[in-house]
Amino acid sequence: MAAEPAIAEAQDPPVEAGAYSGAMSTEYWFNLRTGEVEEGAQSSWSQLLGPYPTREAASEALKRVKENNEAWEDEESSEHWDDDGGHDRKPTS
């Protein structure tokens, strides 16, 4: 009788330090109604801005929105477009 080949057992590779441990990272949300930062989404999505990676970033959400709106308005006002209702826009000189 011939000997059967040995079957190696499958082993998981060792986990490296700092590797994913299965824990979710914390996300922060700014609540428009209360003006408070929430750790994890606790309120209705219609009241939240985010997610943000830090509490500090979430606390500055309205400042960021205001800056983005101003930049967008400045960009729009610097463009010279014929007012054709959004159809076939061409820059004017």
UniProtKB/TrEMBL annotation:
**Protein name, as recorded:** Sporulation related protein
Organism listed in the record: Nesterenkonia aurantiaca
Specify residue ranges for compositional bias: Basic and acidic residues: 78-93
Sequence segments annotated as region (Disordered): 65-93
**Looking at the record's lineage, which domain of life comes first?**
Bacteria
